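Annex B. Sample input.
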Amino acid sequence: MNNTLIIEHLATLLTVFGILALIVAVIVQTIKELPGLKDVPTSLVALIVSEIITILGVLCWCDYHVIIIVWYYVFGAVIAGFFVYMIATGGWDKLNAIWQRTRYKNQKDKDTKET
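Annex B, continued. Sample output.
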C-alpha cells in the first residue's frame, strides 16, 4: 500500500471522527436537559449517543457503498464509538483547562487570588 494512500485514509478517518464527535456534542447538549435525562450523568448520555451515532454511521456507510454488513463492522463501530465519546467529552474539558491556564488575567484578578 502506498504511503500517500495511507495518509489520505488517516486524514479521512480523523475528519469522520471529528464530525461524529461534533454531532454527538450537539445532540448531548440539546437533550441533556430533557425531563427523563436530568438525573442521568451527562457522560453516560454522551457514551450512549456516541455509540448509537457511530453504529448508525457505519451501517449507513455500508448501505451507501452496497457492502454486506458483517459482525466485525459492527464490533469495529462499537470500538470507534468509544473513541468518538472520548473526543466529544474529553477534548472540550482539556481545551477549557488550557484556556483557563493561559487566558489573560488583569491585575484585579491577580489581587483576588493572592488574598
